[in-house]
Design a protein that fits this description.
The chain is of the alpha+beta class and 87 residues long. It is 34% helix and 11% strand. The chain has 3 helices and 2 strands. It has helices at residues 19-24, 27-41, 77-85; strands at 2-6, 13-17. The longest helix has 15 residues, at 27-41.
Amino acid sequence: QGACSFDANNTFHHITIDSDFWKNAGTTLREIIIFHELGHCYLGRGHMNDKHSNGSCKSLMREGLGECHDNYNNNTISYYLDELFTF
């Protein structure tokens, strides 16, 4: 779906999004992917698969292997963006 690439000197960061995914994804899923890849490329974040007691992901930086479910929406956006930028 998305990938972050670096040049040999680690000075140029590039995000690539699969065009078929992008065409078929809704706004919320697009935001999740963009924030996730920005987390890798520009914030230096790795994956985090921790989950809340209700099974929702604690971070947008989850691997996407089904260990938690996304809960990113209008009510939770502040939580997820705060987590992303204040790790």
